[in-house]
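User: Sequence in, structure out. Go.
Assistant: Echoing your sequence, followed by the structure tokens.
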Amino acid sequence: MESDKLKRNASAALFFLGTLVGLAGCAIYPMAVFTVGANDSSQEVWGISLVFLSLFPTCILALRFRLVAGCMMLFVPCFYIYSEFVQRAYMINVRHFPQPPIDSTQIIGSFSLTWPYVALGTFAILTSVLGWPTVFRWPTFFSLVNRNTSE
């Protein structure tokens, strides 16, 4: 019983920190979108929006549904890296701006924005698979029909 309480508190602390980082991302998002212009592809705009806006709701979702939230959290970095490659192709093929070759520093640089998603997503999936208790449980309602009352 004490082990379940410790697991529940550790999960609540990590997801609460993720919620704070998500709130910071929501505050930074208007500055990131302010720079969007004609040189940006729609996939890049979606990628930026997902990175900055989705950590807050997925951390709240992870308090009850870990596996679903963990999969959503791991989807965001994958889509963001995809959106960076699409943006690069858009700049070369549509806007006709020459781009330097892709190297590993660009891919690793995108990890600086998405590391909370990778850390919290793997934590959520692993703890869900290992059977850790959820932070919030549904309240129990008693049916009035099936009660054994003697009146």
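User: And one key feature?
Assistant: The radius of gyration is 21 Å.
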